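WARN no homologs supplied; continuing
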Amino acid sequence: MTMILGLTGGIATGKSTVVKVFKELGFPVVDADVIAREIVEVGMPALAEIVSMFGTEILQPDGSLDRKKLGALVFSDKEKRQKLNALLSPFLREAILSQIEMKKDRASLVVVDIPLLYEGGYEKDMDQVAVVYVPETIQLDRLMERDYLTEQEAWQRINSQLSIEQKKQRADIVFDNQKTIQETKKLVENWVLKNHF
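OK structure emitted
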């Protein structure tokens, strides 16, 4: 039996660090962010739906999605963000679930990296959910530093997701990422060893 592990966290909590460890250990990873980009490529039905909702001004001259324009539009407007999520959700879910099916035969553990796992209701598709955790104060500092954002811009992005504290409470597994990358790596490796994958 293959275990399907949903992996989530908050923006700038260090999820990609944990994903990297799983990849280094040889486990297949289904990456929702990569899939989210693929489903809105030129010629894909999801892109046509976005254009019909938000208009052609969210397109680059070559017809591809202008992610920055769309981001600016939806991060400042909760209603628009919800509309976009509702529109993309079926396309994303179908692509994620089909990738899980393809990778299940290849390993004892498949890691499904979904930033908005709880927000999208994906926990019911997982055997367990792991949350990469840091307190909000650290999350804020890391996000401002990483993306060169003002405090207000960083809070907008953090508040567009379920709070990291709520995710931590709902998780089956918590990978605390407050210390060094090495210590986080050890946490993941120990979990893998303990569960005999």
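Residues 78-104 form the longest helix (27 residues).
OK
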